[in-house]
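Per your request, structure below.
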């Protein structure tokens, strides 16, 4: 809700010269500069104390980063079985003569990681 004009602090301060901002310090627009001004000059101690490591360089520049090149999503062994539908899972568990073929690239994965265990059913995995 918006505050009504008659309840604002300004109404009390009418007639008082400096409006609660003091005569000596004065309410000036941007006394310390705007934003991060003076980080290496008049605000130096604040920056060093509360923002260590703000200035300077770190590490090596890579001017041409190709993030696609090293993108390689992995899937664990224990999740492989869940890539099949429930009907297919039931069918392959009953009939051991047919073997499921799981193509992990169709599910958005590129490599198969070795965590977890699979049921004791042979399976062909394409990656």
């Amino acid at each position: 809700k918006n505050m009504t004009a008659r309840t604002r602090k300004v109404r009390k301060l009418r007639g008082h010269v400096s409006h609660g901002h003091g005569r000596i310090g004065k309410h000036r627009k941007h006394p310390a500069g705007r934003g991060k001004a003076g980080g290496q000059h008049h605000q130096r101690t604040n920056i060093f104390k509360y923002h260590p490591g703000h200035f300077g360089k770190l590490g090596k520049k890579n001017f041409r980063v190709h993030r696609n090149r090293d993108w390689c999503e992995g899937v664990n062994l224990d999740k492989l079985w869940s890539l099949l539908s429930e009907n297919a899972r039931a069918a392959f568990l009953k009939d051991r003569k047919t073997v499921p073929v799981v193509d992990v690239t169709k599910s958005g994965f590129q490599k198969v990681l070795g965590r977890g265990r699979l049921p004791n059913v042979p399976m062909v995995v394409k990656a």
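The CA atoms of residues 25 and 31 lie 10 Å apart.

Regards,
D.
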